[in-house]
Amino acid sequence: MRRRTARLRTLTMSAALALGASLMIAPGPGAAATEPPPVTDYCGDNCADILPPGANGNATLAEILSHRVLGTKPPHADDQLNPYDALSSGYPGLTDERLTEFFNDASFGVEPGQVASVTKPRGDVTITRDKKYGIPHIQGTTRYGTEFGAGFAAGQDRLWLIDLFRHIGRGQLTPFAGGAPANQGLEQQFWPQAPYTEQDLERQVEYIRSTQGERGKQAMEDAQAYVDGLNAYRVKSKNGRYFPGEYVLTGKIDAITNAGEIEPFKITDMIALASVVGGLFGNGGGGEVESALSLLAAQQKYGVEKGSEIWETFRARNDPETVRTVHDGTSFPYAGKPENARGTALPDPGSVAREQLVHDREGGARSPDGAAKDPVRAPGRLKPLQGVFDDGVLPAGLFGGTAGGPDRRKGMSNALVVSGEHTASGNPVAVFGPQTGYFAPQLLMQQELQGPGISARGVSFAGVGMYVQLGRGQDYAWSATSAGQDITDTYAVELCAPGGGTPAKDATHYLYRGTCTPMEKLERKNAWKPTVADSTPAGSYRMQVLRTKYGIVTHRATVDGKPVAYVSLRSTYRHEADSIIGFQMLNDPGYVKDVASFKKAAENISYAFNWFYADSRDTAYYNSGANPRRAKDIDPSFPVHARQDYEWQDFDPADNTSARTPSAEHPQSVDQDYYISWNNAQAKDFSAAGFGMGAVHRGDLLDDRVRALVEKGGVTRASLTRAMAEAAVTDLRGEQVLPEILKVIRARPIGDPQLAKAVEQLEAWRQAGSQRRETAPGSHAYAHPDAVRIMDAWWPQLVEAMFKPGLGDGLYGSLTAQLGVDEAPSAGHGPTGGHAGSAFQYGWWGYADKDLRTVLGEPVKGWTEDAYCGGGALDACRDALIGTLAAAAAEPASKVYPGDASCKAGDQWCADAVIHRALGGITHRAVQWQNRPTYQQVVEFPRHR
After folding, report:
1. What is the per-residue pLDDT across 626-673, written as a single tens digit (0 to 9) for each?
2. Class of residue 542 by CB neighbours under 10 A (exposed 0-12, middle 13-18, buried 19+)
3. Phi, psi angle pair for 429, to nearest 5°
4. Where are the alpha helices (DSSP H) in 58-109?
5. Which residue among 134, 183, 391, 813 sits deepest, i.e. has the most Cβ atoms within 10 Å of its Cβ?
6. 874-889 and 753-767 helices, crossing angle to 10°
7. Paired strand residues for 637
């Protein structure tokens, strides 16, 4: 074992002298400091990570043009893509020694012979980049300098992306990037979830500074230093004409005269950016109005008592058969169904209407399909880039739902952690990372931070990288998966007329604790003009939301004949960046030293995440989140009357504060034999916030494999990585549900030769592991293409044939609106639309599995007594399956995989393939489908401080 000691300051200074590459800026007051002591890396060579496509996410106009015309790419734009892709084919022969073929060495520092460049944006900080991947290693002699360097490096790697996302956070994407329909859709989807005035954002900064003690003050000083560094790069790149070329393409800067501006960054932009990160990955709950509507549909068909019972079966708040992260049976009750609920405010049937968001559409805003184009006259050399953003810079469905609607975020990370008791070395092993979609550049950026009170390497979301958010310290590593527990509730505020009388359904006053109170109107007036990048005709519109003390208005309805507004209240609203304290602690080697201190750091993160930890001795899990302490006997699955006795305990609307559940009530564990998480249920009685935590979950793909490894013993980094990689190319339906399907079908002989052939193909695929993997690297063909095609065509038809006749059109439609039937890799459902990698997160596979086992007479927990398929009769159920199988088997590949801008119709491999969604001018090749984290660590610490 090699002991790595990173003397970054020594390395960077000697390299600077040798290369003559220093970029000197005079240090600010107090910048001078003595050489920091060396940082000891206790991981040896046992820490690895990867983040495709590459560290460099910026490209000048010349680089973008060269890429589009000649196919070239800027340095380090895609050098992590090939090793990431190769694991899908190379994992079967993986050993510890071969891990570096598929992952980067994630040791601290840069070896002297591997220094590619050195930058000194101030006298108290050095940014060293390695030759292999160009990752920034930031070493500061002062705290301010360290954070300034982090901001400067963020500008070097992600300036355009950071600017893009601050405008999303502020609800101003279309004026910045263009009026493409996807851009309109995205800002209309996100802004109502986190609408703020500038004063609101400033108040959140002050809240952290004034209420979170010394750490809060330090966090805001760090954030300001980070912004200062980002702005320093913004100015230098603009003056030096090496800024991202997208600023020219979107009309912000003139390519000839350099006239124009990159708007300065402010600390409030960090709050807006944090709201985007939280909205994408750290939120949970919502959708209570939709839940109420599906409950009413069930009650309408079956009556109140039976309809409610059936609804609860499908809701599966605590499915006894679901896979859990804490699997030792420890109970952590939260957000469950009360025996006698109080305050529930179900709407009158047919009375619900969604609140109007968009008003006063003009010009290009009147053509929502984007058919009309008004291209500008572009210089000849820019013709290859004309219309590059006509389809938007980001997919319209990035945030997975609407304000107050069901949480449908996709691709939320996985983790595999094994206790040292079951490993070959006796030290814990972890393979974990966030599944944040595939973008170019990535939303995350890699960095190492070394400075006073900071020692970490890993990734941070671009623009809020004051600290490493997922990564490793000197002798420990941590990661997270999205937890999604219910931290968002819906209240029904009773409308009123300020002068008395009967209020209209669209009234803008409501009762707050007995007083008729005006709603606050928040607006965004957005306008755009066509640019080289976006040919959408000039247009404008106004977005408007109404804010109450109980949250944002999402719907109007009547309850018991009285007009109400349904409003959505998220516990992290007005607290978008409070989690900065926990991240600060995780980066502090003087704070995190063991399991107990890790847990305390995670307690300070208000986002809904599952946190995992490993050092040389212990493993741990902790579920974070600002879980509101609700009033007694409130059912959080449905809207609640907005009355004081039904409010969150100690609720104060001024800063949206309330009592929270104590840390002891959050799911947690230390040194369990193993942990897995793939956005599955956390623990017994910790209720799911929405539909989808059933008997079959993609977490089973990990749990089954890791359990088998643990039972065998001698787990290594390679064997745990193989388990992850195999799950990443496995079809959940084929592995977990197809066996029951085939049992029903084989209950009688199959007379039709074509059907018999289809069944044989499916059986052969199942026996081979139900994989969607290339026969060889670069073959672009699956070993069982017909079986995969049949399953993709069959599943939606199969589910409908099983459930729709029994549930009826209305209830089936309501339930499928709550939980989609399928998420095959080839479907356009993920964080980036199609080609998103993440698959099988939400679907009806658990329902189908339970129902088929009921038909077969096998033991089932948490299901109705009578099956839906065929009315519970085996022969009738078999007929339904056979009939849909015949139709599916006859569907040609060109229909199952209809093609898109990247793939020809019928190209199965391409339909599944991961394609990085270009957020700028650089694109990347398609790679083999993998259902795995975007950024991933493989760690095993042999030593501890």
Report:
1. 999 999 999 999 999 999 999 999 999 999 999 999 999 999 999 999
2. middle
3. -125, 135
4. 61-70, 81-90
5. 183
6. 90
7. none
Q: 624, 609 in Cβ contact below 8 A?
A: yes
Taking Cα atoms as reference points, which of 199, 106, 279, 99 lies closest to residue 716? Answer: 99
Residue pair 482/409 in contact (Cβ under 8 Å)? The answer is yes
Distance, C-alpha 431 to centroid of its chain: 18
Q: Give the integer Cα–Cα distance in Å for 82 and 79.
A: 7
The whole-angstrom separation of Cα 612 and Cα 480 is 6
- When pLDDT is cut at 50, 70 and 90, the band that residue 404 belongs to is low
Q: 866: buried, middle or exposed (CB in 10 Å: 19+, 13-18, 0-12)? A: exposed
Q: How far apart are CA 551 and CA 548, in angstroms?
A: 5
Pair of tokens at residue 152: 């400067």
pLDDT of residue 607: 94
**Helix 181-190 vs helix 143-169: angle between axes, to the nearest 10 degrees?**
110
Residue 822: which of 808, 803, 841 has the closest Cα? Answer: 841
Contact between 586 and 509 (Cβ < 8 Å): no
Q: Encode burial over 394-422: b for 16+ CB neighbours within 10 A, e otherwise.
A: bbbbbbbbbbbbbbbbbbbbbbbbbbbeb
Predicted pLDDT at 402 = 53
Q: CB atoms < 10 A from the CB of 443, how many?
A: 26
pLDDT for 30: 33
Residue 296 phi/psi, 5° resolution?
Answer: -60, -35
Do 449 and 135 form a contact (C-beta atoms < 8 A)?
no
CA distance readout (Å), 429 to 199, 550, 601: 46, 45, 21
Buried b (16+ CB within 10 A) or exposed e, 910-920: bbbbbbbbbbb
**What is the rounded distance in angstroms from the CA atom of residue 917 to the CA atom of residue 589?**
36
The verdict on whether omega for the bond into residue 53 sits within 30 degrees of 0, i.e. cis, is yes
Q: C-alpha angle with apex 401: 396 to 407, nearest 5 degrees?
A: 145
Tally the C-alpha atoms within 13 A of residue 664's C-alpha that lie toward its C-beta.
Answer: 0
Distances 386 to 61, 179, 237, 319, 374 between C-alpha atoms, Å: 13, 15, 24, 52, 11
Convert the pLDDT of each residue in 263-300 to its tens digit.
Answer: 999 999 999 999 998 888 888 999 999 999 999 999 99
Q: Would you call 715 helix, strand, or coil by DSSP? A: strand
Q: How many helices (H) and strands (E) does the chain have?
A: 24, 32
Q: In whole angstroms, what is the distance from residue 794 CA to residue 788 CA?
A: 10
Pairing, β 515-518 against β 520-528: unpaired
Taking the CA atoms of residue 299, residue 302, residue 306 and residue 311 in that order, the dihedral angle to the nearest 10 degrees is -50
Question: Which residues, 6+ apart, have CB-to-CB distance to 97 below 8 Å?
Answer: none
Q: By three-state DSSP, how is residue 716 classified?
A: coil
Pull the structure tokens for residue 364.
């290009």
DSSP letter for 45, please: T
3-state secondary structure of 641: strand
| Residue partners of 172: CB distance under 8 A and separation at least 6 | 187, 524, 526
What are the backbone angles phi and psi of residue 825, rounded to the nearest 5°?
A: -55, -30
Q: Which DSSP symbol is given to 470?
A: E
In a 3-state reduction of DSSP, which class is residue 224? helix
Distance separating alpha carbons of residues 333 and 339, to the nearest angstrom: 14
Alpha-carbon gap, residue 791 to 893, rounded angstroms: 12
Q: Are 608 and 485 in contact (CB under 8 A)?
A: yes
Element (H, E) at 562: strand 562-570
Q: Which residues pair with 181 in a beta bridge?
A: none
- Under the banding of pLDDT at 50, 70 and 90, the label for residue 401 is low
**382, 388 contact by CB (below 8 A):** no
Q: What is the pLDDT of residue 638?
A: 98
Query: Whose CA is closest to 439, among 806, 11, 52?
Result: 52
From first CA to last CA, the distance across the chain in angstroms is: 16
Which residues neighbour 749 within 8 Å (Cβ) at sequence distance 6 or greater? none
